[in-house]
Amino acid sequence: MSAHAATEQSAFTGEIPKPNTAWIWKTFWILVVITAIEFAIAFSMTSPGLRTFRNSIFIVMTLLKAFFIVGEFMHLKHEVKSLIWTILIPTALLVWLVVALVTEGSYVGEVLSHMFSS
Amino acid sequence: MAHSTTLQPTAASAAYVDAPRTGTWDGGNEPFKASYGKLMMWIFLLSDTFTFGAFLTAYGLIRHKHGVFTGQAKDFFFSTAHWPIPEKVFNAFPGMHGVDLPLAFVALMTMILIFSSVTMVLAVEAGHRMDKADVQKWLLWTILFGSMFLCSQAIEWTHFIGGHEEGTRMADGTIFHGANLVMNQYGPPLFGDLFFFITGFHGTHVFSGVCLLVWCFIATTNGTFEKRGHYEMIEKIGLYWHFVDLVWVFVFTFFYLV
Q1: What is the ipTM, given to two decimal places?
Q2: B1 touches chain A (CB under 8 A)
Q3: In chain B, how many domains are there?
């Protein structure tokens, strides 16, 4: 029934609408510029004292890129709120897990180097 | 309409079967106003996020457990005592032997993957307009960029396994080149393991994505989606493809930049 109707519809060669791609290229350029800035920082900010600051910039820019990929390319920004939260809340818990175990890792390293070696 | 299944609806319910369902609990409701297929893809991607999240968590813990090289970057040397600085490990470019080009090749790989994401959105957009020729064109570009990325990764792995010319002197006095799962010239053994597992797992995802895209291209060419009346399959595969790109964004930051 419905399959048959669809076949008839596609046999009719209607006019194809013009592509609407401006927003895609805009997102593309945002991603390219962020990546370029990341490279510029990777090579200009090499002092060991600035390492934490540099890495925080990298993480912020990564999250920014993730926002544009997920929000625009994967269209999540335009889905209903409940779907957005269904995806974001478990992911946020995952970020917490990463932060917790990074902290734990520093502690494990400290214990190993101070308690078990001379 | 003729049913060929063994489960035939009873005569009394025939009219009911034909009518679109509208009730809350009998299939008339779309949770989150998203179609079944797209919702399933989102939930699958969430579970895949957990997989890569596990890798990232393990990476964070192991990396912070190991010592950091505290000197200036130019004085850096490979040792199992500290975690390597990525730009000292990944500084080769195919065809430019012996030239120090830190992160140049991985920059190229990142650009290839961003490009493939853009061509994928363009394919989805063409699907919305039922433009078969455009869908085919953009799918082919996406397949091309995806395959280019896989080739680049093969080169990257070959170089990582083969190692730098000078190698690193190990504890027993021998010089070791390259990497395997037990030891490597760049740093602690787990550095090599994490490289193989994280980029390998990501590469496997890209490979699956390319296979799905090739199938999509064949189905588009055969007119399967046109007959169906919508190109939602491209959208679902597109979601997967962008997710793979997203994972690379994180791998790139945490493995190559930080």
Answers
A1: 0.83
A2: yes
A3: 1
